[in-house]
Design goal:
Low-confidence stretches: 556-564
Largest sheet: 6 strands, parallel
Number of strands: 30
CATH architecture of one domain: Orthogonal Bundle
Number of helices: 20
Radius of gyration: 33 Å
Strand content: 15-25%
CATH superfamily of one domain: Isoleucyl-tRNA Synthetase, Domain 1
Mean pLDDT: 86
Structural class: alpha+beta
Length: 663
RNA sequence: AGCGAGGUGGGGUAGUCAGGAUAUCCCGACGGGCUCAUAACCCGUAGAUCGAUGGUUCAAAUCCAUCCCUCGCUACCA
């Protein structure tokens, strides 16, 4: 048992869009973990809430013609309900815009100021006069000062990849309204993160959780820590103490939500939130997505330390989610919405919970495909687990009317014990997939046992022996219900009831898995899982394919290519050595072009606009590495660049030798 | 570019930190068994030079070095 009470949190969903299964990749394992701890006798409080501040919510609210608060509430309710439908049950689900969080954030920031961890500095910020607000760099686009490529405010994302400092970008434009943005001087406040380097190195050394979180953060801290700007010029958010024109950066008040939500919960239940947050060591475990590791392993512990709070005990970071092998992307259509695409189709939360938990290691990327989803549900949940439970209960009910009054074989209990130990080992290491493999292993053991013992044969010769076998199987079924409850809570409850229990399985502990099943009548069983039909899966696949196709149509209009693609083109100057008309063709000229290191034969469609005499001797621009093609039976090894319908030849302004590379 | 993660039979995936004999599990293929059960379940067979090369060792998927490939992240995006 730990000294401090156990607190588990999940990364806060941002209230600017609906829940998709990428979200669940973090929430389902967290819920699974919490349920497991509870089934193991641990007292746990499970806290989450919605993240409401920041520019994107202001922008989206304006677009929808509502207030940021109203937009936040809409999605807050949405997430709260969706999580419940998925069986992800928080003890409290708060909002970062609620008064308690405003108060806690200001209090914490004041302590940082009092402890000398905050200073002010004047910096330049992009400002859009039309929108009348300062723009986060993500909302600014322009030209990279280093390479001249189109770039984002913070990074030359399409060109040289360099990080851009505020004020560096040329021709800044507001991405919301498209007008020219300017720069304005503004006083901002910085957190002295650089002073926490030593602390963080020691802290990360002892941080529990998954290795990806620790390694990633460690590399960052060892490299360089810059001080962190913790204010924004925005109306929407938590006011920075003493400055009505500034709010704190959302990444400050969002994690503080973990504290304030604990406060809200503690107020309701009459306990002290300080027991969770104000003493070391804490028993705080954060479940987060892999993309926000540095916030939780660097900024957050430094803030807590600087303000005199306890620091988290563990950070458990999940890997990314893919759809059909593609990177999860709303704009490209590779998305599965939790409500529209899953729950509202009548699919059980249990199936998706099982898939998300059992697919792979928690820190690796997880691929969702309807086909694989169907395979795993049908083979593992329905066939292996569901069928063992059903054939056992069915046989017991049919032949004995319930649980026969016979003793249990020791080796069965020993096997369950082995499973429990293996599961617990895996859970301690946050190896959720391995834990579930052990669970499913027990179901396979059950199938094996009933198959080898063949009670349907025994019943004809030795009724008592058959009774003993089926009793053993009933013990296994009970054990399976208890150990699988954290994974598939609804199905576990159903099995629990079919074992003759009237109460909630949640009120029982996993250790009961080795206990007896009291003799007595059982209700008639029914299968707990049903198979996913091919037709249904095909339908879902079609829906996804359609969405991807439609997204593709939109995207082709403004498709960009990465710089690397452009680099593949070998464009250079050339000089036309000779030219002749291609026989039987109106448009084609056969050219011999000097491109520096060789003379190329190129067929060009410009006979209508120029004559062989005119073009001979002219400098031209050539794509030299185009795939060779046969035009009118004549091989063409490149392409002459010309503009427009009149095929106006492109040529260098100053004279350069043939073969000069064009960039 | 830097940092992080990964490359294991046809597909997916475990094992790598703490090196050891026939490399796990799910599917797929093939053959057999069983009939209590949701055409289920059980058994067996084929199939992997564990990304490449070199090294350490009695012994390497595992440790070390170099290289190739894939993905992710890179702070005044949330």
């Amino acid at each position: 048992m730990r000294d401090s009470p156990v607190l588990v949190t999940c990364g806060l969903p941002y209230t600017n869009g609906p829940c998709h299964i990428g979200h669940l990749r973090t929430y389902v394992p967290a819920d699974f973990y919490v349920r497991y701890l509870r089934r193991s006798g641990e007292k746990v409080v499970f806290i989450c809430g919605s993240d409401n501040h920041g520019t994107p919510i202001v922008v989206n609210a304006e677009r929808d013609g509502v207030t940021p608060r109203a937009l936040s509430e809409r999605y807050h309710i949405h997430f709260d309900q969706t999580f419940r439908r998925m069986g992800v049950l928080f003890d409290h689900f708060g909002m970062t815009d609620n008064p308690v969080n405003h108060h806690r954030t200001q209090s914490l920031v004041n302590r940082l100021i009092a402890n000398g961890h905050v200073y002010s500095r004047v910096i330049q910020q992009s400002y859009c006069t039309k929108c009348g607000r300062f723009l986060p760099d993500r909302y600014v686009e322009g030209i990279c000062p280093h390479c001249g490529s189109p770039a984002r405010g913070d990074e030359c994302d399409q060109g040289c990849g360099r990080h851009l400092e505020p004020g560096e970008i040329k021709e800044p434009t507001c991405m919301v309204c498209g007008t020219k943005a300017g720069f304005r001087d503004q006083e901002h406040y910085f957190f002295r993160l650089s002073e926490f380097k030593e602390f963080l190195l020691g802290y990360l050394e002892g941080l529990s959780g998954t290795l990806n979180a620790r390694n990633y953060a460690m590399g960052w801290v060892k490299d360089e820590l810059r001080d962190w700007c913790i204010t924004r010029t925005l109306d929407w958010g938590v006011k920075f103490p003493g400055r009505d024109d500034l709010v704190v950066y959302v990444w400050v008040d969002a994690p503080i939500g973990y504290i304030s939500f604990t406060e809200e919960w503690a107020d309701e239940t009459g306990v002290s939130w300080k027991d969770y947050w104000c003493r070391e060591p804490t028993a705080i475990t954060h479940f987060i997505g892999g993309d926000i590791i540095y916030h939780h392993c660097i900024f957050w512990p430094a803030l807590l330390k600087g303000a005199g709070y306890g620091t988290p005990h563990a950070v458990v970071a999940s890997g990314m989610l893919k759809v059909d092998g593609h990177k999860f992307s709303k704009s490209r259509g590779y998305v599965v919405w939790t409500n529209d695409d899953y729950l509202d189709k009548g699919l059980p939360a249990d199936y998706l919970r099982y898939y998300l938990l059992s697919y792979t290691n928690h820190t690796k990327e997880l691929n969702f495909s309807w086909k694989v989803f169907q395979e795993r549900v049908n083979n593992e949940l329905v066939n292996t687990l569901g069928n063992f439970v059903y054939r056992t209960l069915y046989f017991a009910h049919k032949e004995f009317g319930g649980v026969p009054d016979v003793p249990v074989r020791k080796e069965i209990v020993a096997e369950i014990d082995r499973s429990l130990a293996a599961i617990d080992r895996s859970m301690q290491e946050y190896e959720f997939k391995t834990a579930i493999d052990s669970m499913m292993g027990l179901a396979a053991y059950g199938n094996n046992y009933i198959q080898a013992s063949a009670p349907w044969k025994l019943i004809k010769t030795d009724r008592d022996a058959a009774a003993r076998v089926i009793k053993d199987c009933l013990i296994l079924v009970q054990a399976l219900a208890l150990i699988f409850e954290p994974v598939i809570p609804e199905a576990a409850q159903e099995i629990w009831q079919m074992l003759g229990n009237a109460d909630r399985i949640e009120d029982h502990q996993i250790s009961g898995a080795t206990g007896d099943v009291p003799p007595g009548p059982l209700p008639p069983p029914r299968p707990v899982f049903s198979k996913l039909e091919d037709a249904f899966i095909a339908e879902m696949d079609e829906l996804l394919a359609k969405r991807v196709k439609e997204a593709g149509k939109k995207a082709t209009k403004m498709k960009t290519i990465p710089f690397e693609e452009f680099c593949k083109l070998d464009i250079r100057t050339g000089k036309v050595i000779s030219a002749e008309k291609v026989p039987k063709s109106n448009k084609l000229l056969k050219l011999r072009v000097d491109i520096g290191d060789e003379i190329r034969q190129i067929v060009a469609g410009m006979a209508e606009f120029t004559t062989p005499e005119e073009i001979t001797g002219k400098p031209v621009v050539v794509v030299a590495n185009l795939q060779p093609a046969k035009i009118f039976g004549i091989e063409s090894n490149g392409m002459i660049l010309a503009a427009g319908e009149q095929a106006s030849l492109l040529m260098p302004e100053k004279e350069v030798p043939p073969g000069t590379k064009i960039r």
